[in-house]
From TrEMBL:
Topology in membrane: Multi-pass membrane protein
Superkingdom field: Eukaryota
This protein's UniProt keywords: Membrane, Transmembrane, Transmembrane helix
Region called Disordered, residue ranges: 143-170
GO cellular component term of the entry, any: membrane
TM stretches of this protein: 76-100
Protein's UniProt name: Lens fiber membrane intrinsic protein-like
Pfam families assigned to the protein according to its UniProt record, in alphabetical order: PMP22_Claudin
Stored InterPro entries: PMP22/EMP/MP20/Claudin
Location of this chain's protein in the cell: Membrane
Length: 170
């Protein structure tokens, strides 16, 4: 009975973790800040997630053509982390069902080890995403660009209808 209780707690914790991971991927509030924009003469609330940027509550999708390589890698690692977490939840669920059926065997041990490894990989992938995003978006640590600047003026999207030119790349 003790093993069933531990399995139930593990299944609930992993399931909750996967649910929160999915919700976290969908939200555009990974990074939020309020900034004074001189041209507008007012404070602007900016929030950004992996796929959307919101300015004063108006959200726009971030097109793939403007994403840098490190940002695309963050997208991929976040999705891989979520998939690994979902597979881990499946494995923990299998262990729970096997424990209810009193089938404690070598297969249960292998399944438990697989779920542990996948949970660790999901945590590493999620941590890597947060590290990259926090460096670039919060602390504005410059990164080396792997792709050249596209031709034409560089613009910054402020809202649906407001675009302002920015300084060219150094």
């Amino acid at each position: 009975m003790a093993f069933n209780l531990v399995s139930l707690i593990a299944f609930g914790a992993v399931g909750l973790g996967v649910l929160l991971h999915i919700i976290g991927l969908a939200t555009p509030q990974w990074v939020t800040k309020t900034q004074f924009v001189l041209e507008l003469g007012e404070n602007v609330d900016i929030s950004q997630g992996l796929w959307q940027v919101c300015v004063n509550g108006k959200c726009n999708a971030i097109p793939d053509r403007v994403k840098l390589d490190w940002y695309k890698a963050c997208d991929a690692m976040a999705i891989l982390g979520m998939l690994a977490g979902m597979f881990s939840a499946l494995m923990v669920g299998i262990v729970f069902v096997m424990s209810l059926m009193n089938r404690n065997s070598a297969n249960t041990t292998k399944t438990t080890k697989t779920a542990s490894v996948l949970s660790f990989l999901a945590a590493v992938a999620s941590g890597r995403v947060l590290k990259n995003l926090s460096k670039e978006l919060i602390f504005n640590v410059p990164r080396q660009r792997s792709n050249p600047e596209p031709p034409g003026p560089r613009v910054e999207f402020l809202a649906h209808d407001k675009v302002r030119p920015r300084a060219p790349w150094p």
